[in-house]
Each structure stands twice: as structure tokens, then as C-alpha cells.
Amino acid sequence: MQHKITLIKNANIVNEGKIFNGDILIDGDYIKEVDNSISAKSSDINIIDAEGKYLLPGIIDDQVHFREPGLTQKATIQTESIAAIAGGITSFIEMPNTNPQTTTIEKLNEKFDIASKTSFANYSFMFGGTNDNLDEILKVDPKQVAALKLFLGSSTGNMLVDDPQILEKIFSNTKLLIAVHCEDETTIKTNLERYKKEYGDNIPIKYHPIIRSEEACYLSSSKAIELAKKTGARLHVFHLSTGKETSLFSNKIPLKDKKITAEVCIHHLWFSDEDYEKKGTLIKWNPAVKTSKDRDLLWKALLDDRIDVIATDHAPHTLSEKNNAYTSAPSGGPLVQHALPAMLEMYNKGKINLIKIVEKMCHNPAILFQIEKRGFIREGYFADLVLVDLVSPWTVNKENILYKCKWSPFEGTSFKSRITHTFVNGGLAYNNFKFSEKKYAKQLTFNR
């Protein structure tokens, strides 16, 4: 059977520092041609008129928790990848703290097997480091695995890597990029005990950013960076939440040459501690959403390129779990469906331009993780593409939320922009609230 050829006409193409009106020819999995005007050579070409719409490379989300295996009451790779493509995310990198944890090659391969059968978006996984799995870490193929994930705070089971000697050994020996969650556990435990003495388990949520404090974040981030500099390891610090931490990062060299990089998540750019009163534990994340001053400084560092990537840290829990008392309510929330609409809302408010959104959500994750042939609109690259209508308002509600957990911290929020079409490897995976039954997803590969 001949593969499908699609011609996207009259799009405002946002790519590599420019916005220009043009056409894109997709042939099979790939972008065949990008030009100002391409004419259809045969009658069986599928033509999409994108007049007035903006065409972006597919979003690459470098940090998600899709909860499979073992926590599938919250989410599955299938349910969350469907939500992702509805939000313009065509590729995701999933975290190792599932059940069982992804800390052996066997468990990693099991996850690849699940994704190959059920994912609607392109996929890769991070391998998890522990205090005792260095032998397994050294077996990981860097061409197949996005990175090594280390929890230097806030983890369950044995995934908290808290032995300084082992940490140095891992940093010194792995060729993988090391991605870290940085919060100092000792600081947090001390703060938590103080508030538990006063409130028991019903600590008011407003104290969350004081318990998981600026000090806890900065102490851990600065130690990780110090170790990376000492060992020469390639370090990526996940989800910055404080203004103070932004001083640890530089914009003096291009991303491709940086050894130490940083990411910020949608929730830390959108919410502040003023929102706890209304949203409660629905915006309980680790690291915590902090002050509006922190948020302003995160924006500043994002726009001046000290922060390299925008991600979601999509981490769903059931609503009943989130409604528990403070000490029992888990941290994390679902975000993949609403991340790009939220950033486009910030564009509409004049906070960020479209070129910068594409740089931080498409180009930079591809550069940072050395992802092969994705993240850019280029001839010969995989046709992962997103069409957006910047003037098509909608409101997030129970009926249009696609996450398995069926709630969103954005419920009740109105967005001006919506995703109309998502292409994954040339296949039209999502088209105006309709999903293709065919899966076009592939495993990500890395040019290392």
C-alpha cells in the first residue's frame, strides 16, 4: 500500500528563529519539502489549508510520569499519550519511579514494550539511579535511553540517592546525561516536623512552599552543580522553582556547548503561592509553587536563556488521593494536554513570543538530549507537527479533560488558543477533537 502524502498549505511556520508563510509536504514519516509555495503533483494528496493558523514543530516534553507499570489507577501510557497529542506534545520522556521502578535493564525493556504497543506519541524513558545499581547504569545504551534520572530529594522507595560517595561514583562513571530532582531532604524533614507539631496532619497547604523551601532547593541544586563541575558530568536540573536557583546557571555559551542546563515547568510559570487558597492540594507539587517574585525571576531566566527548556512534570494522581489531608495528599498534577495552550496564553498576554516558545519546547529539548531528526521543521526530519489556531477560545472543563484522572489544575480556565491538528511521524494523529485509531508513534533515538 502506498504511503500517504499530505500537503499543508498557507501556514504561518514558526521555526528556527523565524515566522514565515509557507507550505510543507509530508511524504510518509518525513518532511519532504518546506517552501513558500508547493503545488500538489497528484490528485490523491491530502491537502490541509492552514490559512491563519500557526505551524510549530511537535512539542518534546522531557519530563512526564505516565504511571505505568504499577500505578495504572492514576494513568497509563495510552491514556496520557492521547492527552499529550491533543495538547500538541508529539514526543515524551518518561520517568523511572513507576512500580516496579525502572532501575534494571529488564524493567526498562518492559516499559519500551508497553509503549511500543500502546503509545500515541513518540517515547523514551529515563533510567533510574539508586544507591546500589551502578552496574546496571553502566549497561544502559546511550543511543536508546534519554538520560539517567537521579532523585536527590523527594522520592519513594530506594530511589533517593543520598550517599555522597555513590553519587560521585555515578557522576564520574556514566556517559549518560544526568537529570536531577533537587530538594534537600534534611531541610524538608526539619521544616515538616515543626509544622506537624503545630497542626498534626492537617497542615494548611499555604505552608507547603515554606516546608519545601527555597533553602532546600538551592542547597541541593548548588551541590549537584558543584559535583558536575568536579567530575565533568553532563547535568540537567529539572523543574527550577526559585529565583535564587536561577543564579546558578549561565547564558554565556550556546546550549549545544553547555554541560549544565536547567528546566522550568508550566506550573511554576503560571501559579504562585497566592493560588493555594483557591486551588489547595491540586497545585501541591514537589518542588512547591513558590512566590510571585520567584515566578517573575523564573520568567526572567527563561527569557534570557539561563533556563533552557520548558516541560510539564505531568504527574497525575486520583482526585480522592489529592483530597487527602496535607501529609497524605501526594504531590503532582496532570499537565500534558494544557501545557502548550497555557504557553500560548502567555504569548497572547505579551509575556513570551512564539519563537521563544518553540525554542524552549521543541528545539532545545532536541538539542539537549541529542534526539535524532526531531524538534525542528526541516526537510528529512520526522514530520512531528502541530497546527494551532491562536483565536479559537475554549474553557477547560470535566467534559474535555482527557487525563485518566479526569481533573486538571486548569479546570475553569479559558484559553484563547487551541490545537487543531497534531502529526506524529507524518500521520494525522489528532484532528479537531478526533483521534486516529492508528498509532504512528516511534521510539526516540539519540545521536550519541
Automatic annotation (TrEMBL):
Enzyme superclass (EC): hydrolase
Q: Which domain of life is it from?
A: Bacteria
Provide the cofactor list for this protein. Zn(2+)
Any one Pfam family match given in the protein's UniProt record, by short name: Amidohydro_1
Q: Does the keyword Metal-binding apply?
A: yes
What are its E.C. numbers? 3.5.2.3
Amidohydrolase-related domain ranges (all copies):
54-426
What are the GO MF terms of this UniProt record? dihydroorotase activity
Give UniProt keywords alphabetically: Hydrolase, Metal-binding
Which family does the similarity line name? Belongs to the metallo-dependent hydrolases superfamily. DHOase family. Class I DHOase subfamily.
What this chain does, per the record? Answer: Catalyzes the reversible cyclization of carbamoyl aspartate to dihydroorotate.
> Which protein, by its recorded name, is this?
Dihydroorotase
Recite the lineage of the species: Bacteria, Pseudomonadati, Bacteroidota, Flavobacteriia, Flavobacteriales
